[in-house]
């Protein structure tokens, strides 16, 4: 064992522990506890094991799961930017790029490069794996928000057009999942008033 | 899309959300927040991406990560059994077997069988993937307990012999990791008094 290499890996493993403290706007299905980034990533990794059969294109499951496990790590330094926080989103890319250099720099160079390029691949949204990962990243909070009777949507006066814009690429990973999500998670919650209908 | 199949998958995805509420005895590196099962699984999945190079035998990384992601799901019904809770451990196997049938029965049969056999493979500790997964499952709380200055160990008056017994199979997945863990995480914390030295 190369001790210097191992210590770098351990330093990274200790540092990313902080992701468990980064809270998201979504509530768990109990409707009381805010989800954190690590829980969110764990949930999507299992969802990918179960739902990859609905991907538009066959995907490399390990690569997709790896991407999902690490895609929010930059938030350890850059913080979570809520999907509907238009101000925060203006500086998000710059904050996250700086965070990526700092965080992935802790790892041995080969592994740091590998994780950073997985993250960049997710952000670029061009490969089948990145597209399916994005589908999971949009579908999972819809499931939680629906299960919590729209609590986070109602707290933020979320409007239908925001949700549709947020989900503009959900179909690119899976037409099947998007078709279900649109009708049974989004439109259902527009009809019951949990999401504000601004389409009229 | 087979709607009946998809609804079963979604029901399972909603049900396992409860794993995020199952608290463990370990504290996060902040020394204040108890870790939950989902965070624990997420952390070990990333650790496996980084540390599989130290496995005694080459492993299928996707299989190992899948095992780690789901190995505590039975606790949704069976609860967490602390590593040093000797009373709880007497009924643990029976409680968890019942929980597995109930939980994996929610999924479509092919996927339920697949997850259940992954869990049984982890429990049986015979394959290289199961052995490495166990190494992660023992190594990860050592890292957290050490980073939190032994808080959970001190609260439970944990003794050196308990930790050594708990880690009797850690070397079977990785001699290298065990060698490091024994000296730099366990014996170090015996020397500084965070773990009670009952060897004399």
Describe this structure in words.
The structure is a homodimer of 200-residue chains. Chain A is mainly alpha-helical and 200 residues long. Helices cover 65% and strands 4% of the residues of chain A. Chain A contains 11 helices and 2 strands, in the order H-E-E-H-H-H-H-H-H-H-H-H-H. Chain A has helices at residues 3-15, 37-51, 61-70, 75-78, 86-104, 109-124, 128-147, 151-155, 160-166, 170-173, 175-191; strands at 23-27, 34-36. A two-stranded antiparallel ribbon of chain A has the order 1-2. In chain A, helix 3 (61-70) crosses helix 7 (128-147) and helix 5 (86-104) runs antiparallel to helix 6. The longest helix of chain A is centred in the C-terminal third of the chain and has 20 residues, at 128-147. The mean pLDDT of chain A is 96. At the A-B interface, helix 1, helix 2, helix 3, helix 7 and helix 11 of A face helix 1, helix 2, helix 3, helix 7 and helix 11 of B.
What's the short story on this structure?
The structure is a homodimer of 200-residue chains. Chain A has 200 residues and is mainly α.
- Summing up helix and strand content along with how strands pair, one would put the structural category of chain A as mainly alpha
Largest interface: A-B, 45 and 45 residues
Q: What separation lies between the terminal Cα atoms of chain A? A: 65 Å
Multimerization status:
homodimer
Helix fraction of chain A, binned, reads: 55-70%
Order of SSEs of chain A, N→C? HEEHHHHHHHHHH
What descriptive keywords fit this protein?
homodimer; 200 residues; mainly alpha; two-stranded antiparallel sheet; 65% helix
